[in-house]
Amino acid sequence: MNKRLRADPSQPIDSLPYEDDSLFVRAAGRAMQVLSAFHHASGPLSLSEIALRAGIDRSAAQRLVHTLSKLGYLRRGPGDRGYLPGIRLLDHTLDVLRLDPVIQKATPVLLELRKTIRERVDFSLYDETRIIYALRMQSKRETFHATLVGHSVPTYCTAGGRALLSLLPDEAARDIIQRTPLHKYTAKTVVEPAAIMKIIQKARTDGYALVVEEFLHGEVALGVAISRGDGVPLGAIHVAGSLSEWTPEDFVKRASPLAMEAARAIMGSL
Questions:
Q1: Three-class SS of residue 127?
Q2: Bridge partner residues of 122 (DSSP)
Q3: Residue 234: in which H helix or E strand, if any?
Q4: Dist CA 48 CA 228 (whole Å)
Q5: Mean pLDDT of the chain
Q6: Closest to 65 in 3D by CA, of 93, 41, 45
Q7: Which residues face 220 on adjacent strands?
Q8: What is the predicted pLDDT for the residue at 150?
Q9: Maximum Cα–Cα distance for the chain, whole Å?
Q10: Secondary structure element (H or E) that encloses residue 233, with its range
């Protein structure tokens, strides 16, 4: 079975089940854990903080940080304090965005959708318990952080995430929900697994998922899934508006046919 590195940098490589994988290079895995230590960091990290977050000893962290710094994947923070990700990582971000066939096909379609609907349009990639934003076409209301690609959000409480879960059999969707920490992002966030499953089943029938103030206050968002020909989830279109300008009913009436048409165009070109 092909096992992936956990996105959680707090779990050390030595605790992961790779002992039977003769091809797995632990040194490379530890290097990736060092880079993953910066997930959710609020500023530069010290060597000790990197070691703790990566789950390795300080001596190993020192060697790996030195190597990654020499290669341009890490750099010193302001005032030569701590470490930050290096600009060399942006080369790999570009490779993902320009070579991914789904993103290639989705970009012109979503640019046209953004022109038509004049609200925020995003495209995310599916990663089971979370979705990762690969394209972000902001509206006039967006903050800096909300425009960044690479930002990830849970599948269970977001429009695109629920649309993607609706492509799965109930058992598979339920398993993903059970493996996800269910937090209330707002007072309206649905966190009961049975209730989430009912919403996912409705999305399967409707062809889209609607979220009203479950992830962000004052926001209504609609998500439509993108899949392979065999139904395997790939990504999702998100369209989001402000409840100060839309009722949920009017937003669905306006956004759902446009987003579903865009999804058909993308899937037809894959």
A1: strand
A2: 136, 238
A3: strand 233-242
A4: 44
A5: 90
A6: 45
A7: 212, 241
A8: 87
A9: 59
A10: strand 233-242
- By the 8 A CB rule, do 155 and 214 touch? no
Tell me if 251 sits within 8 A of 139, measured CB to CB.
Answer: no
Query: Cα 124 to chain center, whole Å?
Result: 6
CB 260 within 8 A of CB 226: no
Backbone angles phi, psi at 226, to 5 degrees: -115, 130
34's tokens:
């060092």
Is the C-alpha dihedral spanning 186, 263, 173, 200 positive or negative? positive
Distance (Å, whole) CA 183 – CA 39: 19
Three-state secondary-structure class, residue 239 = strand
pLDDT of 9 over the 90 cut: no
- pLDDT tens, 196-249? 999 999 999 999 999 999 999 999 999 999 999 888 999 999 999 999 999 999
205, 104, 211, 117: which is closest to 155 by C-alpha? 211
Residue with tokens 């570009």: 94
Strands 219-227 and 130-137: unpaired
